[in-house]
Amino acid sequence: MTDMIMSYSDMIMSELQHHVVHYRSARGWSQERLARQTGLSRTAISAIETGRVVPSTAAALALAAAFDCRVEDLFSLTVAAEREKPDWAWPPTGDPCRFWRVTVGARTLLFPVERTAVGVLPADGEMRGGRLEFHAHADATQALVLAGCDPAVGLLRAEISRTTDFAVLPLIRSSRQALELVRQGLVHVAGIHLQDRARSAGNERTVRELLGPGHTLLRVARWQEGLAFAPGLGLRTIKDAVSAKLRWVAREKGSGARDCLEAVFRGHPRTPDGFGHVASDHTGVVETIRTGWAQAGVCVRLCAVEAGLGFLVAREEDYDLCYRSDLQDDPRIQALFDAVRSLAFRRSIGELPGYDARETGAVVPVVG
After folding, report:
1. With 0-12 CB in 10 A as exposed, 13-18 as middle and 19+ as buried, what is 210?
2. pLDDT per position as a tens digit, 101-127
3. Sequence ranges of the chain with CATH classification 1.10.260.40
4. Check: CATH 1.10.260.40 for 2-82?
5. Angle 354-357-361 (CA atoms, 0-180°, nearest 5)?
6. Of 313, 308, 362, which is closest to residue 340 (Cα–Cα)?
7. How confident is the model at residue 130, as a pLDDT?
8. Cβ contacts of residue 19 below 8 Å, gap of 6+?
9. 15: nearest Cα among 70, 79, 100, 107
């Protein structure tokens, strides 16, 4: 294990920095393609990119020739005074604390490891006793951080991983929480579904109000959101549900599902007598109902169907991915864009209960 990690004190010594991954990704090349272009083995390419070996002069020249650049553009020697210690995206959960290390814009950030929408993911390092240890395999430029609540984000992550060397880090956040992280420059992408009451502008209007212009929306799907309920209740309409005395599970304020729940009860003579449980995502809503702690709540149809619950449609919403327009040349954003618009992803997302893929891949610039 000791040969696979390096401490921060080791990292701040003079060391060779490289941009091989950036040049390769910008061309859309795999490691195998680069190996063929240079005459090096794929194992050698991987070792150079992960920092396990220092390339020979011949290898460095071959790489520069393949990318049609100078050796100095690919490799440089960085000394301690030239490097800044990475910042935490938000405070670590404790000590020790495992973390992910990702570049977002011009910053390198450490993200405390947490539950993701696709389960447990490998860490890039660990803080122990205030000392940072980085796994040698970790590459901060190879991960895209996406904050949102889409239960099907695993399909997008799989498509990006299938066609590129990039990985998606899917953090579970409500729509407004995700937009705030984009505003602060802490994540690349926010997944949002904040239905405009007038149904005239939807997510575009919300982004303009909260973030201002200079952002882009990429359509994932139009999905059905509504009331999930225990099947034994036999509810037939939303009016039946809001009139009954049920135990409700809610989503946190700022989420699209909470907005939907409040809209369902808006104008009704009675409202829920508080919420015994508040879930952090759509899956949490159905699990709370399935295990008997609540009888009803708001989520997307997909989660209700997969949990075997009853479902009543309350409204249809656009689920979009929001990112800063000035990041559109980042290879990770390009990979995201290509994956969402791919035939394979559109087919897989369109097969899901309650997801409409007819506008998947549509792009909406947010202007002033």
Report:
1. middle
2. 999 988 899 999 999 999 999 999 999
3. 2-82
4. yes
5. 140
6. 362
7. 87
8. 73, 74, 75
9. 79
